[in-house]
Amino acid sequence: MGNRNVQGIDQHPVTGQIWSTEHGPLGGDELNVLKLGHNYGWPVISYGIDYDGKPITDLTEKDGMDQPVKYWKPSPALSALEFYRGDLFPKWKHQAFVGALVFQEIKRLKLAGETVEEEEILLKGYGRVRDIKTGPEGAIYVLLNEPDQVVRLTPR
User: Fold this and answer.
1) What is Dmax (Cα atoms) for the chain?
2) How far apart, in whole angstroms, are the C-alpha atoms of residue 30 and residue 71?
3) Cα–Cα distance between 102 and 119 in angstroms, integer?
């Protein structure tokens, strides 16, 4: 309940939790851990405003509604979500990779439980990031558009 527009979804390979990325309105893109029976608040609570500049709500929190693990203002237009499962980048094992359409980037998110401990932009300006997958050999594959291409990330 209370999800606006889920874009990416993946299961954490260690905890089994289901994580999602979600488009907010103008501002307020979210990273969430989806839990059975929980309410994520949309449209009662939000960190964004409507595209016409008017407020959707004045509330950012309310009893019985979960806060996002992280939200972004301005909205990068979050897309894919992938937990890294390969071995080519051992320091990134089980970290989250999140794509962005408008910002044309990949964010690496180091998690500590249900908290983002570190955020790093790995790829920027190569196109709108549509999907991210770990290949069988451990490379990270990125599907872009504008321009349409697949990029393969490997260590130097």
Assistant:
1) 48
2) 4
3) 18
* Sheet with 140-145, side-by-side order of all strands: 128-134, 140-145, 149-153
6-153 maps to CATH 3.40.30.10: no
For the segment 77-94, what is each residue's pLDDT rounded down to a tens digit? Answer: 999 999 999 999 999 999
pLDDT at residue number 156: 86
What is the domain partition of the chain in residue ranges?
6-153
Quote the CA–CA distance of 55 and 38 in Å, as a whole number: 24
> Which residue type, as a one-letter code, is found at position 33?
V
Do the Cβ atoms of 56 and 25 come closer than 8 Å? yes
Q: Are 73 and 48 in contact (CB under 8 A)?
A: yes
